[in-house]
Amino acid sequence: DPDERAFQERINAGGKIEPKDWMPDGYRKNLIRQIGQHAHSEIVGQLPEGNWITRAPTLERKAILLAKVQDEAGHGLYLYCAAETLGITRDEMFEALHEGRMKYSSIFNYPTLTWADMGAVGWLVDGAAIMNQVPLQRTSYGPYARAMVRICKEESFHQRQGFDIMMKMCNGTDAQKKMAQDALNRMWFPSLMMFGPSDENSVHSEQSMAWKIKMNSNDELRQKFVDQTAPQAEYLGLTIPDETLKWNDKKGGYDFAEPDWNEFFDVLKGNGPCNQERLQTRKTAWEDGAWVRDGMLAHAAKKRAMKVAAE
Amino acid sequence: DPDERAFQERINAGGKIEPKDWMPDGYRKNLIRQIGQHAHSEIVGQLPEGNWITRAPTLERKAILLAKVQDEAGHGLYLYCAAETLGITRDEMFEALHEGRMKYSSIFNYPTLTWADMGAVGWLVDGAAIMNQVPLQRTSYGPYARAMVRICKEESFHQRQGFDIMMKMCNGTDAQKKMAQDALNRMWFPSLMMFGPSDENSVHSEQSMAWKIKMNSNDELRQKFVDQTAPQAEYLGLTIPDETLKWNDKKGGYDFAEPDWNEFFDVLKGNGPCNQERLQTRKTAWEDGAWVRDGMLAHAAKKRAMKVAAE
Amino acid sequence: MGNDALFQTLLRLGDNTLILGHRVSEWCGKAPVLEEDIALANTALDLIGQTQMWLGYAAEVEGANRSADDLAMLRDVWDFRNILMVERPNLDFGHTMMRQFLFDAYHHALLGALARSTDPRIAEIAAKAVKEATYHLDRSAETVIALGDGTPVSHDKMQTALNLLWPYTGEMFESDDTDAALAAQGVIPDPASLREAWTATVQTTMAEATLDIPEDSFAHKGGRTGKQHTEHLGHLLTQMQWLQRAYPDARW
Amino acid sequence: MGNDALFQTLLRLGDNTLILGHRVSEWCGKAPVLEEDIALANTALDLIGQTQMWLGYAAEVEGANRSADDLAMLRDVWDFRNILMVERPNLDFGHTMMRQFLFDAYHHALLGALARSTDPRIAEIAAKAVKEATYHLDRSAETVIALGDGTPVSHDKMQTALNLLWPYTGEMFESDDTDAALAAQGVIPDPASLREAWTATVQTTMAEATLDIPEDSFAHKGGRTGKQHTEHLGHLLTQMQWLQRAYPDARW
C-alpha cells in the first residue's frame, strides 16, 4: 500500500502526522485507545488526591493540592481535545469509560490512606508518569505530542512538590516518618506496574514502536525509574520494600524484584482495592450532572436562536 | 347531650376513657393532634442527639446515647399505637407530618453544636418534657395515660444522664466549662418555650383542661421548671442567661424573663434554625425507605398466601 | 475594643473564604462537566489564597503567637465567624452555584469597598481579592442564568436552590457594635450599605435566569457573631481539622 | 509473639465490632421503618458493648497504660485491625442489612467457637456476646430474606448488595502466623474452619431470599493485618475521634 508506505516513511523521517492527514485505521484506533486512556487517567486520577483535599493539614498544602488537581483536570481536557481530532467525541469516550470498554491507569485503583500518600503519589506516581510521558513529546501524532509538551512541564513540577512533602514527613516526627515509610511500602510495587508487563507479553508494543506512539520498551522505562528512585529513597532515609534491590555495577543499574503480576491482572480485571468505587464515583458524577449539561445546552440553543432572530 | 354529659361526668370522677367508649369528636381530634404531635416529637427528637452519636467522646457515652435514642424511638412507637386506637394510622400521621399538617416540638428545631448539648438536652429538654408528661400519666384517655407511665420512667432516667454529662463538663477543663455554659446560653429560652405561650393566648387550653387531656396551665409548669432548674444551674456553677432571674420570697418561686415569643412564632412558622433540615431528613428517610416497606409487605403477603395454600 | 474588633472582623472575612473554599473543594473530581471541575477548583484555590491573607493578618493583629493555620485548624465551632450560608452543604450542583452567586455578588461589593479601607493592609488584600471576586461573580452569574433559563428541570432545581438559600442571605447585611466601630473609622463599610448593590445584581441576574426572588425577608443569623452556627459546621471541622488535631506536634 | 499475638487478635475482634457498630449507628433516626430504627440502634448498642469488652481486655494485655477508649479514639488507620467489609459505607438499607447478615453469620460461628477458648476471659466475653449475635443473625437473615423475596425492585437491590459485598467476605477466613499461633493453643479457632458453617448459613438464607451467590472467589484483604484499609476508614475516624483529638486533656 503506497499510502501506508509514505505514512511510515514520514514517521521514520521524524515528521508529524496531523489530524487531516491520511493514517492507517490501526494507527487511529491505537491512538484513540492510548490518548483516551491517558485522558481518563487524569480525570480518575483526581479522585485519590481529591480524597485528601478536605483534610489537608495546612492552608498552603491545601492550595498546592487544589492547584495540582486542577492541573490534572486541565491535562484531561488537552488530551480529550487531542483524541477528538481523531474522530471521537469526549462524550463517547466517557461512555466507553463508564461501560468498562476503555481503561484508566491501574495505579488509581489503590487507596490514599494517609497524608504521606499525597507525597508518595507525587514522588512515585507522577515520577513514573513522567518517565512514560517525556519521550511521548516526540510522538508521531502532532496534537498528542504538543499536549505532552504542556503536560510534562506541569508534571515535573508536581513531582517536585510530592518529593517536598516526603522530605517534610521524613524530617518530621516519628509518626510522620512511619507514615512516609508506610506510603512507600504500599505504593512501590504498584508504581513499578505502571510501566506495564514486560514487552514480550505485550500485544501492541512492536507496531506502536514503529508508529512512534510508543517510544521505549516497558522494561527500559521501569529500569530507568528504579535507577532514579532508589537513590532518592535513600536520601529520604526510607527503605524500598524489596530486599533484593541492589546496585549492579556490571549493568550500571539496580537489580530489583518484579511486582506481583497476578495482582496487576487482578486489578486490570476490576479487582483492585478501589476499582468499583472510582468508576462508580465517576458514573454518579456523570448521571447526577445530566440535568446540568442539559440545562446548559438548552440555554445555549435559546441564545443562538435569539441571535439568529435578531439578525 | 346526655352522651356528652355522661362522658364528662366519668372524666370528672377520675374514670378512664377507652378506645371503644363513646367520645365527642373534639376530644378525639384534640387527642389525635396532641398524641400525634408528641409521637412526632420523639421521632424528630432522635435527630439532634443522633447528630452526636458518631462523635461521642467515649465508648460508654456512645452506648448511653444510643440507648437513649433507642428509647425515644420506642416512645414514638407507644404513642403512635395510642393514637391509632383513636382511628388514625401511623402512615397517615407520617403523611401529615411530612406535609406540615402536624407539628413536632419546636425545641428540636435548634441545633446541637457541641458535646455539652447532649448534656443540656437531657437536663433541660428532657427536664421540661417530664414537667409536661408527669401529670399526663393521669390523663383521661386510658391508652395515652398508660403510654405516659412507661415513658416517664425512662425520661427521668434520661434527665439524670443529661445532668451527669453537665457535671462532668462543669468539673472538667476550661474548654469543657465554656462548652457547658454555651449550651445553657443557647438552650435556656428555647426550653422555656417548650411549655407554650401563656394560656391566656392558647386556643385549646380550657376545653382540654376540662377533658383532662391537659392537666396544668403552661405558666404553672414553666414556673415549676424554673424553680427546679435554677438551683441545679447554681450547683453546676453555670449562669442562666437571664439577668432578671432571682428568688422571690413572696411568691415562693423565681422571677424570670419571658422568652422572645416572636422567635417562638418564627420557629413555629418554619423559620427555626433547623426546621427545613429536620423535616427534610425525615421525608428523605421515608422516601428512600419506600422500596424496603414495599418489599417487606410483598414478602409478608407471599408468606400468608403460601400458608393459606398449605392449609 | 480596638484590636479585638479588628481581629473579629478579619475572622469574619477569612472564615467566609475558608469555609466556602472548603465546601467548593468538596466537588473535586465530581462536577457535571470537566470545565466546571476546573472552574470549581480554581474558585476554591482563590478562596483559600484569600483565607491565608485574611487569617494571616488576623493572627498578627491578635498577637497571641497563633498562625493563620492555627486559626483555621485549631478553633472549635463557636470561634468561627463565617456567615451560615457558606457552611451549608453542597447538596446538588445547582445549590452550590446559587450559593456561590449569592455570595459572590456580596463579596464583590464588599471587597470593592474594602479596597478603599483606611487600614492599608485590608485595602491591599481587598484590592487583590476583588479581581478574583469579579471573575467568580461573572462565572457564577452566567451559570445561574444558564440553568435558570435552561430546561424546566434545571429551572425548578435553581428555583428550589434560591428558595432554600434566601433566608441565609440576610445575615450578610447584619451589623453589630464591632461593625459600627470599624465602619465609623472607615476600616470597613457599613454592612447594610452593601445591600443596594447586591440587590441590583441579584435582581438583574434572576430576571435573566427567569427565577422568582422570594418575598419573605426572614433571615437566619448567628454565624458571624458565632452565637449559633448550623450543625453542618461541626461536621466540616472534623474533616478539615483532623490531621492537625491528631498530630499536634507535626509540621507539614 | 505471645502477648502481641493475643493483643492483635483482641484488636481484630474489638475493631470489627467498633467499626460496624459505628456504621450501624449512622442510621439513627433515618431508617425506613420505626421498628428498624429501634432494631438498628439495638444492634449498634450490642456491638459497642462488645467493643468495650474486647478492647478493654486488649488494653490489659498490651499493658501500655492505654484504655479501651484510648484504643478506639487515638489510633490512626494503620493500627486498626477490622476486616474491610465493616468499614464500607452504608449505601442503602439493603446494603447495610446484607453486610450485617454476612457479618452476623460469621460472627455467630466465631463467637460460638471462642466461647470454648482456652483463654477464660475470651471464653467469658464470647459466651455473653454469642447470645446477642444469635439475635442479630436471626434478624438480619429475616430481613435479607424478606427483601430478596419481596418485590422485583427490592430483589434487585439485594442482589446488587450481595454482589458488591461478596469480594469482602473472603477476608473473614484468611489467616496468618498470629492466627496459627493462637489456634494451636486453642485460644481461637482456625479462621478457615469457620467457613463451612458460614457457607451453610449463607446458602440456606440466599436460597430463601431467591438471591444468587456470586461465583467469583476473589477476596479483598488488608484490613485485619492493617496493611491496607479502604479510604472509608480514615473518613470514619475523623468523625469518631475528633472530640478526643481536639480535647486531649478532657475527661468525659
Protein described:
Chains C, D: One of its GO terms (biological process) is phenylacetate catabolic process. Chains C, D: InterPro entries: Aromatic_CoA_ox/epox, Ferritin-like, Ferritin-like_SF, PaaA_PaaC, PaaC. Chains C, D: One of its GO terms (cellular component) is cytosol. Chains C, D: It comes from Sulfitobacter guttiformis. The complex is a heterotetramer, with two copies of chain A (311 residues) and two copies of chain C (252 residues). With 311 residues, chain A is mostly helical. Chain A has helices at 2-12, 25-44, 46-53, 59-84, 90-98, 116-136, 142-170, 174-193, 205-210, 218-236, 261-271, 275-288, 290-310; strands spanning 246-248, 253-255. With 252 residues, chain C is mostly helical. Chain C has ten helices and no strands. The model of chain C has no long low-confidence stretch (mean pLDDT 97). Classes of the chains: A mainly alpha (311), C mainly alpha (252). Chains in contact: A-C, A-D, B-C, B-D, C-D.
- Overall geometry of chain C: globular
Number of separate helices of chain C: 10
Q: Uncertain spans of chain C, ≥5 residues at pLDDT below 50?
A: none
Helix content of chain A: 55-70%
SS-derived structural category of chain A: mainly alpha
- Largest interface pair: A-C, 52 and 51 residues
Shape of chain A: globular
